[in-house]
Amino acid sequence: MMILVPFLVAVISGSIVLLITWGLIKKNFSLPIRNIPGIVTVIAANVLFYIGFVMVRGFEGVAYLFLAFFLVGFAVVSFLMAIVMEKKLVGTK
């Protein structure tokens, strides 16, 4: 449960981040605007890492660290999605 619940929370919030990124790509926003959901996710993961490592500590803090780790994974996917889709959109014009 200590790994499954943070993973489930990260999947739900990460899918929302990916949907927002996809919507920004479909509306043809510039690359810095498309990267905003990923940047916000990385900032949130850093805050969760700090809370889990410094404030909570112990086994309860490890759940925050797992959540931060999975959120960074979704942020990387969001960044890659924004960059790859830009290259596809540029190639089709």
Q: Care to describe what's here?
A:
The chain is mainly α and 93 residues long. The chain has one domain (4-92). It is built from 4 helices and no strands. The chain has helices at 4-26, 31-34, 36-56, 58-92. It is elongated, with a radius of gyration of 15 Å. The relative contact order is 0.19. The mean pLDDT is 92.
Shape: elongated
Count of separate structural domains: 1
Rounded mean pLDDT score = 92
Q: How do the SSEs run, as a string of H and E? A: HHHH
DSSP helix count? 4
Strand content: under 5%
| Main sheet record | none
Helix and strand composition category: mainly alpha
Number of strands: 0
Oligomer: single chain
Unreliable runs: none
User: How far is it from the N-terminal to the C-terminal residue, by CA?
Assistant: 48 Å
Work out the helicity level: over 70%
What does the radius of gyration come to?
A: 15 Å
